[in-house]
Design a protein that fits this description.
Number of strands: 11
Strand order of the largest sheet: 1-10-11-8-2-7-4-5-6
CATH superfamily of one domain: Dihydrofolate Reductase, subunit A
Distance between the termini: 25 Å
Shape: globular
Number of helices: 6
Helix content: 25-40%
Largest sheet: 9 strands, mixed
């Protein structure tokens, strides 16, 4: 099932936190395991379409390193399916901004953030262009607490991990959301897209 209303005009770019998450709310296992998500062709093709429509990726150091260890050369591996090759090309072409105090160099159409988090993201949101995706729980948690995330995309996996890294941090204030899109995949994964109610 898929529901999606026509998008309303917006005066600024939205920041979207998108993540694969277990039914009990974890994005990693207790030992940071990432071997549990179901990622098949149907799912990855959908993700490719959504990611290709974005304008910028925001990363913390850890996720940037994880992504840059695999995706730059994935499209050159003949053992990988075409949907992996396609995402590799999307990833390499997408502008990326990395927030890190320890890295002194980034590659693959990426740059290190030139100012603090609030200033950088506020400036990006005010620029014309396509929406912005934030990757990584720690970076997203900081943006949530600052009220800078406009949409949440959850790819809910049919598994209970029991413990691990939570998708959502503890927050001091409530955030009212409205459901604007859903999709169910044959694997049992469910996609839910929420927008802040005041966006």
């Amino acid at each position: 099932m898929t529901t999606q209303p026509s998008p309303a005009p917006q005066s600024q770019r939205n920041v979207i936190f998108s993540m694969l998450v277990s039914l009990d709310g974890y994005i990693e296992g207790p030992k940071r395991e990432l071997d549990w998500p179901i990622i098949d062709e149907e799912f990855h093709t959908f993700v490719n379409e959504r990611e290709a429509a974005l304008g910028t990726f925001l990363y913390g150091r850890r996720l940037y390193k994880l992504m840059s260890d695999f995706w730059p050369t994935a499209d050159q591996d003949p053992t990988q399916p075409e949907y992996i090759h396609a995402y590799s090309r999307i990833w390499k072409e997408m502008p990326k901004i990395v927030f890190s105090k320890t890295l002194d160099k980034v590659d693959w159409n990426a740059r290190l953030a030139s100012s603090d988090l609030v200033e950088e993201v506020t400036r990006l949101k005010a620029q014309p262009g396509k929406n912005i995706s934030v990757g990584g729980a720690e970076l997203a948690a900081s943006l949530m607490r600052l009220g800078l995330i406009d949409e949440y995309e959850l790819y809910i996996q049919p598994i209970l991990l029991g413990s691990g890294t939570r998708m959502f941090p503890e927050l001091q204030n409530r955030t009212n959301l409205r459901l604007i899109e859903t999709r169910s995949f044959g694997s049992g994964v469910v996609y839910l897209r929420y927008q802040r109610a005041n966006v």
